[in-house]
Design brief:
The complex is a heterodimer of chains A (about 240) and B (about 240). With about 240 residues, chain A is α/β, with parallel strands linked by helices. Chain A contains nine helices and ten strands. In chain A, helix 3 crosses helix 4, helix 3 runs parallel beside helix 5 and helix 8 packs across helix 9. With about 240 residues, chain B is mainly alpha-helical. The chains are: A alpha/beta (about 240), B mainly alpha (about 240).
């Protein structure tokens, strides 16, 4: 069963083509990474799939609904953790989660239950009453993911979730993301090779708005004829194999 | 319901910022005290407490522009707005969520100004209530102006334009500090063409119970409020599409 079916998505900003004819299928429950250097079109792809920006051409079906014709229905199925932490700084972690729960139309009881569940899942108990602005980058990212999850999404978009984090915070967040794997479909963008390799069921490599290759880590290494994933990535991107 | 959840968040965000409270409430009160003290030593008609207080309540509204513009600009820069656009919240929900909580804050600020002026010799009467209610159209203008600026400018630019430029302009062109007839010429014409002076004169008239005079000043204020609100909504929706 497909969670996402992308059919020829194109996004142009005047003379610049940010995404150029993207075709892709992402399976339900899969952790799919979009890997590419800066400016590859990963974030623009996520923005189109999460109905933040309209495609210039093409369409995608997310959770059974068209992103161009039924964006309101798509928005009820997805959770997004943007590249920036995107938290309300003067609100406590609990209040941030209550805010998103309320926006999704949850009752107070349901929001409370969801907060308890997420606190346990993401180990947020110790920071629940603290102001979001006072938290470290790693904790803010974790809160950001919790905010994306509180709406009970079927599909979760994580845009560069570990950008700017130190090694320890990054590994902690990887554990958090791994724990979610299988429960929701996760689409993650990253430009860290090791992150894509450590977390993904499948990886899509993007360059200049185009999808160069899709497959598991092993498939991509095999395709590039190398035993090292970083070398495989470099080889695929340099050769521009489609 | 969704909109109210977001509006509640915006109110908390503004009221929990000590700089907001310090400037928004403290600054007009300090000025009220300072100018009343000057008036006690060197009597100036303009600084009589019954004339000064209505003007100061209008000046205090310029901080509403700063509050709303700063909040929106911060939410844009932190990508919180981007997150909200991926939720079931509609564009109208977000706009109302930003604007509605500032209205009671503006009214609260006005009431505090009048309460603060009582021990300074303010003449109490039912007209104070009219003056408080009458400030709503100008409050809407300032809040919408904040929405407009916050949709177009970054946090630093908002600080400069809404924090410094607008507060000064609204002070100079409102006739609170000096009689604009003394300056005359183009300056007076510009002041007459903008809503600040009309708002101060309307508040003074309402405070005196002169509803006829107040009504003559209401039209330009309402006109500006409607125009700026329409521009703000269009601009906000445009930046939303740009996301």
């Amino acid at each position: 069963m497909q969670a996402i079916q992308v059919n020829g998505l194109v996004k142009r900003y005047k003379a610049i083509t940010a995404v150029d004819g993207l075709y892709l299928e992402i399976h339900r429950g899969e952790l799919f990474s979009l890997l590419g250097v800066n400016g590859a079109g990963k974030t623009t792809t996520i923005k189109m799939l999460s109905c933040l920006t309209k495609p210039t051409e093409g369409d995608a079906v997310v959770g059974g609904y068209s992103i161009t014709r039924e964006p309101e229905k798509v928005k009820r199925l997805i959770g997004v953790s943007p590249q920036e932490t995107a938290v309300a700084p003067n609100l406590s972690v609990k209040e941030n989660l209550e805010l998103i729960g309320g926006i999704h139309g949850f009752s107070k009881e349901k929001t409370k239950a969801k907060i308890q569940e997420l606190s346990a899942q993401l180990a947020l108990d110790s920071v629940l009453q603290r102001k979001a602005a006072k938290l470290s980058g790693g904790w803010q990212r974790r809160v950001s993911i919790a905010m994306a999850l509180i709406g009970e999404p079927q599909i979760l978009f994580l845009d560069e979730p570990t950008l700017g984090l130190d090694v320890l915070a990054r590994h902690e967040l990887w554990e958090t993301i791994r724990a979610l794997s299988g429960k929701v479909t996760i689409i993650l963008t990253t430009h860290y090779m090791e992150e894509a390799e450590a977390l993904s069921d499948r990886i899509g490599i993007m360059k200049d708005g185009a999808l160069l290759a899709v497959g598991t880590v092993e498939e991509l290494k095999e395709k590039a004829g190398t035993s090292n994933f970083e070398a495989a990535f470099v080889s695929l991107v340099k050769e521009g194999v489609v | 319901m969704r909109m109210l959840t977001f509006a509640k968040r915006c109110a908390k965000e503004i009221l929990r910022d000590p700089i907001n409270l310090g400037f928004g409430l403290g600054f007009p009160l300090v000025l009220l005290l300072l100018l009343s003290t000057i008036q006690a030593s060197i009597p100036v008609n303009l600084f009589e407490i019954d004339t000064l207080t209505p003007g100061m309540t209008v000046f205090g509204l310029s901080f509403m522009t700063l509050f709303s513009a700063t909040l929106i600009a911060k939410d844009r820069e932190s990508a919180l707005l981007q997150r909200l656009y991926t939720t079931p919240l509609t564009g109208l929900d977000v706009i109302l969520g930003y604007m509605l909580p500032l209205l009671p804050i503006a009214l609260g600020q006005t009431v505090i100004c009048y309460l603060f002026a009582i021990p300074l010799g303010l003449t109490l009467g039912v007209h104070v209530v009219y003056a408080v209610v009458g400030i709503i159209p100008m409050a809407v203008f300032h809040i919408a102006l904040g929405l407009l600026c916050g949709s177009m400018l970054g946090v630093k630019q908002v600080g400069g334009i809404c924090g410094a430029l607008l507060t000064n302009l609204s002070a100079w062109l409102s006739g609170v500090w000096f009689d604009l007839k003394l300056v005359g010429g183009v300056f007076e014409k510009i002041a007459n063409a903008l809503p600040f002076l009309h708002a101060v004169e309307m508040e003074k008239a309402l405070f005196r119970g002169d509803f006829g005079l107040a009504a003559t000043h209401l039209l330009p204020i309402v006109l500006y409020s409607v125009l700026v609100t329409a521009a703000a909504v269009l601009c906000f929706l445009r930046q939303m599409k740009k996301q």
